[in-house]
UniProtKB/TrEMBL annotation:
This is Spore coat protein. It comes from Saccharopolyspora hirsuta. It comes from the Bacteria. Keywords: Capsid protein, Virion.
């Protein structure tokens, strides 16, 4: 047994979530937490989960400890020591670089980054953005892991991945369409997008993921049905079973690729644009443009959705390309890199601890 593996160690995860800021930072950390737990480590969160109740429930279900974030870099370094951390994972757009530097004085640090955040002081840098592997390497001596080989995914997503490349079904009944804008809908546009889809598809079974809308507010035709589903652990199954998913180009996009979903994507906020552009270029999603494009010309967006539903060959092509692009093992590759940097455990301590 290696003296630098994660067994019996503590890994601390620093990330925050809110309706306005999204849930992606904590969701990525949750996938890594599941991986380190599978290797015998204890995952501990230092996080402000804000008003994202479904995410708080996800951590509670896994019996993961959550501590309040301290004020300032040095206080976080002290907290790492107090928690007995062997390593730290930090995922944020807003935490100051000094916090990363202070943490590195105590333990090896893995940090998620992208073009929006820029490279950060860390020992392992992970950028799961599609196309990131083509970017220039960031300066410094960090281990750099980039591109769809390093998409970080939770157990439920990985379990929903089909064993073989999926094929779209011929539609002999109303198509099943899923509309999801990630863990939160900060701009409150889910209802607008649902109406665009309904206006263009006279025969449809539409499932809408969200909290700010109600099924009763939509006018539906005789061969239409709308179901509004709050954020749910059952989402991976809904993704995998849908004939088409309309999605924002955020963290959810990697999940959709892993389960082999046929996706029509739009970019909603600026940091999603690089993801969107590379996903379209890779052929794993059909591009609808920006949120502004879709709301500005709803007829064109709705027509694109309808045409995809009428074309099973195109949906199969999208789904199979997506399935091949994201294999679901990104988190294990990332944790392998972090694990290799751990300070060795004293052999006597390891023997006594089992």
């Amino acid at each position: 047994m290696s003296l630098t593996d994660l067994r019996h160690r503590v890994v601390v995860f620093r990330a925050d979530a809110s309706t306005g800021g999204g849930a992606g930072h904590v969701v990525r950390c949750l996938s890594l937490a599941e991986e380190v737990a599978a290797r015998g480590a204890e995952a501990v969160f230092v996080a402000d989960l804000g008003d994202v109740d479904w995410l708080r429930a996800e951590l509670r279900e896994r019996e993961l400890a959550v501590h309040a974030p301290p004020s300032g870099p040095e206080a976080f370094a002290d907290q790492l020591t107090w928690l007995g951390a062997a390593a730290a994972v930090i995922d944020s757009y807003h935490l100051e670089p000094d916090l990363y530097r202070a943490a590195r004085e105590v333990v090896p640090v893995l940090a998620s980054y992208d073009r929006y955040s820029g490279p950060l002081p860390a020992d392992v840098l992970v950028d799961q953005t599609f196309g990131a592997h083509r970017d220039p390497l960031p300066p410094g001596g960090a281990v750099v892991l980039r591109g769809p080989d390093y998409v970080l995914l939770r157990d439920r997503i990985r379990a929903a991945r089909p064993a073989l490349p999926p094929r779209a079904r011929e539609l002999g009944e109303p198509p099943r369409v899923l509309l999801v804008l990630g863990g939160t809908d900060a701009l409150d546009v889910t209802g607008d997008l649902a109406r665009i889809v309904l206006a263009s598809c006279p025969s449809i079974r539409l499932s809408v993921i969200g909290r700010g809308v109600r099924a009763e507010e939509f006018d539906v035709g005789p061969d239409q049905a709308v179901e509004v589903v709050p954020p749910t652990p059952d989402l991976p199954r809904l993704m995998a079973e849908a004939d088409l998913v309309v999605s924002a180009a955020g963290t959810t996009l990697g999940e959709l690729c892993c389960v082999g979903a046929a996706v029509a994507a739009l970019w909603v906020v600026d940091n999603q644009l690089p993801v969107y552009e590379h996903a379209v270029a890779a052929g794993c999603v059909h591009g609808l443009g920006s949120l502004t494009d879709v709301l500005g010309d709803p007829g064109a967006a709705g027509a694109s959705v309808r045409e995809l539903l009428e074309n099973p060959e195109r949906r199969s092509e999208l789904a199979q390309t997506a399935w091949r692009l994201v294999d679901g093992h990104g988190r294990s590759r990332a944790v392998d890199a972090l694990e290799s940097l751990l300070v060795p455990v004293d052999r006597r301590t390891r023997t006594a601890g089992g």
